[in-house]
Amino acid sequence: MSQVQGYTPAPPLAVADASVEVRFEFMKRTYGYLLGGIAAFVGLEIFLFTTGIAYAVAEFAFSTNWLLILGAFMIANWLATTWIFKAKTKQGQLGAYALIILAQALIFTPMLAIAFTSFEGAVGQAAAISTVGFLGLSGVAITSSKDFSFLGSTLKWLGVAALLLIVVSVLTGFNLGAWFSVGMIAFAGAAILWETQQILRSYPEGTELLAATQLFSSVMLLFWYVLRLVMSSRS
Prior knowledge:
Order of helices and strands: HHHHHHHH
Strand content: under 5%
Largest sheet: none
Helix content: over 70%
Low-confidence stretches: 1-11
Shape: globular
């Protein structure tokens, strides 16, 4: 059917304006994709460690400038995120999501190798804390009437500041310490609050994979710094 001249199609209806049943199904699919991504991440790590590839990856990472690895990870993550937003098909979105999961699995491998060899039980403890934190923050974001939209611009500036601190730390050898991990845990928590509310209020039906990708990255960030804090507390 040809488009009527001068007619602009209405934007997709946000899930917040849909029925309770539609909102429930949307969030169920979103968290289903999120759980699937986490399961794939765990599966990849199990494969990497059981085959011994993880230790080769860790050895390579430890002998390479960390800024190069961080840069490569950021480029891969940026490309995959751009891809998933521009993909026209579900298969394309799944491919981008898979690339993000793979990139996260590889960047986590060196720290997991240290945790498994020197800090017994740290990974399980960090995973449990991260899970409880994520569930609690998600519950607050979904049920609270408070508007967390003010966090959006704040998170952008804090993210840039944190990245600069990481670069300075790598270049100078300065140890950011446990307080930086605490700050980044708070940052990840704020990101989960903001993203969950944005998903509920702004995302239309059919964007479940996009929503899951946003949440997956924040969950991984939370887990990274919780694990880092757990390990530093045992040093």
